[in-house]
Amino acid sequence: MASPEPNGGEFWRDLKPLQNVFRADAAPEIFLPDTLDDDERYFIPLSETVGSRPLWISLTQNRWADVLMAKQAGLVNRHYHPHQVFGYTLSGKWSYLEHDWVATRGCFVYETPGEAHTLVAHESDEPMRVHFNVTGPLIWLDEDGQPNGTFDAYDYLELARAHYEAVGLGAEAVEKLLR
Residues 103, 87: contact at Cβ < 8 Å? Predict the structure, then answer.
């Protein structure tokens, strides 16, 4: 193996890439450049003020990864997670009404299974963008915290297909995100 150059250059340039990258029957990776652009066609409306850009959807795991975005003060909805969720703030400000913190650029949030909350986007000089890795379903809650609907990877896929078709991207654009 090559050793690092004294000046810290790209010492790995002389390494030979692996020849057999994928195991038999493995699906290829998903590479999406420009996921932080402002092309609103990619953002599926989840409410009047917040959209979600799907990055990866797994029906077999009932999971998805997305970028949640609000360009102004916004609200997703009250909901409950029976499974874990990971969130990383890319820009803007957001919080849960039920907690005393406000997430800004660089903040990481781990949501434990069994948590209910109300996600809000704060006013900010830049759009709120959060990368979430969600294991579904989300259970929508009314103002009293009582269940009044669900949202899982199947619902997300159906919503994404319909939205992408309506905005001219074509429903098939979502298919490349399925794994």
Answer: yes
Q: Which one-letter DSSP state was computed for residue 174?
A: H
Alpha-carbon distance of 119 to 97, in angstroms, equals: 7
pLDDT digits over 22-70, tens only? Answer: 999 998 899 999 898 889 999 999 999 999 999 999 999 999 999 999 9
DSSP string, 79-127: EEESS-EEEEEEES-EEETTSS--B-TT-EEEEPTTEEEEEEEPP-SS-
- Look up residue 77 and give its two tokens: 């909805």
Contacts of 29 (CB under 8 A, 6+ apart): none
The number of helices, as runs of H, and strands, as runs of E, in the chain is 2, 11
Residue 42 gets which letter from DSSP?
G
The Cα–Cα gap between 173 and 110 comes to 30
Of 80, 95, 167, whose CA–CA distance to 130 is shortest? 95
Which residues are bridge partners to 88 per DSSP?
108, 131
Angle ∠(55,32,42) on CA atoms, nearest 5: 55
Give the whole-angstrom CA distance, residue 132 versus residue 67. Answer: 6
User: Can you tell me the distance from the alpha carbon of 120 to that of 134, in angstroms, rounded to the nearest whole number?
Assistant: 17
